Amino acid sequence: PICDARDDMNRSTASAFDQFDFSAIEDMDPSLSEGHRVVYDRECPFELRVQSEAGPQEVGTLEAIQCKILVLGDESNPQHVRIELTSENDLFFHYTHSLDESSFRRMQEQQKLMIDFTDYVTCVLKMLNSCIKEPHSFLAVFLMHTDGNARLDFIQNMEYKFVELLSCDFVASPEEVVRHQITFRYNSTKSKLALVQ
User: Fold this and answer.
1) With 80 as the cut, is the pLDDT of residue 25 above it?
2) pTM of the prediction?
3) Does residue 16 sit within a domain?
């Protein structure tokens, strides 16, 4: 009964938010400054691990990470793809994965991928959604290095074996980018609250 009441409250809050047009606020997102468009923006469960000198952590911490996929150009034939990862638990957590067709080809060769660059966004989108819908079968493991580099591994649990499906290289964003993002997130939340009130 308590869960049902909470679900009803969340639905009514969501429907109340649907009445407002936040597009003007969202257009101020610094991620869009180079002409990219957001095609995916959702929280996904990630296992966060830190690579130390002794080697990677065996077990990391589970955290909801905000995944934003941005595309420059047409979604079906992009010129550039960027994935940004942020966290509500750590405002300074901001990692970026950038890819154009030539860097995708190198990635395709290294990982023996069967998809083309035009299918890359759809592929990542499906994997993120699988991690949300089937967290026991699909895992997103984010391994962070002390030098600012990181890697996101999409892993499928086949019950008898873990199979690595895709790996994406990330880099910690520079301090200035992080500062702009924090300012935008703060101002965005403040503006939305003012609109709702």
Assistant:
1) no
2) 0.77
3) no
